[in-house]
Amino acid sequence: MKTNSAVLGTLVVLGGGECTWVPALENAGWLCHRSLDLRAAERLLLETGPCIGVVDLTRDNFSLQGIAGLVNRNKQARWLALVRDDQLRNDAICQFIVNFCVDYFTAPVPEGQWLKTIGHQLGMLQLERRVWPELGQFGQHGLQGEQPAMQKLQHQVKRLAMTDMPVLVLGEIGTGKELVAQAIHQASTRAKSAFVTVNCEDLESDWCVVLPPDRERHCCFLKAENGVLFLDELALLSDACQQDLLRLLESEAFNTACGRAIQPNVRLIVSTRYTLEELLEAGTLRKISIIASIPLR
């Protein structure tokens, strides 16, 4: 990575071989990062915020499912794919490009083409910031204050709001876990869609629950479609629903106990008053992997 006193934009490159085109971008004013590890890339994207991302598939560094999950969670980036000509005959790779990328290149790519295309995507990123001017702003959700602890929380919420990854909020009763979830929702691109709160103890095996204001029985995933589903107190989730949640986090879809296929478009935020160590020791988490966590302790 090379820094430039006048940074034009930030570029994150995932995978690939020797990126001979990166120096030209750095010389043009781009701040470039590269990662060959998905976990490290997740942390990097969370810290970076809105940026341009390049998925270099030419060296098969990652499983396509793994990289698809990362790209889907990090919608604050505009993603480009770099592939070999022969990979365009692979249906799975073509599907990945269509589903998750705004454009693609076939290697090798002239430096001028990189500069032109990535420059255009920077312009699109700036337009998105105009369309969603409240992205990263959490209004009056109780997260005001100048104390160091509150400023740290504000920073965490702002970073997480600009992604679409699942979140676990940790804290004792009364620490404001739902307020934090609402702040993430309000500061995200899902702010205009529903925020649905569900007590895990009330959930049935088919993920249905009685919800206000009509007090009718609804599938919580359908009710929260395009928005945020907040599951309060993970420790009270039934074993069957824990297994469903694990499948959802791993493959973004699952079948309920009654056979209904669920493939929701929701942002998942869950909370608990217990520590991760307590949940794991009790067997509650069952290896459920929440990507990001916010401790309110």
From TrEMBL:
| Any one biological process term the GO annotation gives | regulation of DNA-templated transcription
Task: Return the PROSITE patterns for the record.
Answer: SIGMA54_INTERACT_4
Which keywords has UniProt assigned to this entry? ATP-binding, Nucleotide-binding
Q: Which ranges carry the Sigma-54 factor interaction domain?
A: 143-287
- Tell me one Pfam family matched here: VpsR
KW ATP-binding (keyword) present: yes
| CDD domains attached to this UniProt entry | AAA
Q: Which domain of life is it from?
A: Bacteria
In alphabetical order, the GO MF annotations are:
ATP binding
Indicate yes or no for the key word Cell inner membrane: no
Query: What is the name of the protein in this document?
Result: Transcriptional regulator VpsR
The organism named in the record is Photobacterium aphoticum
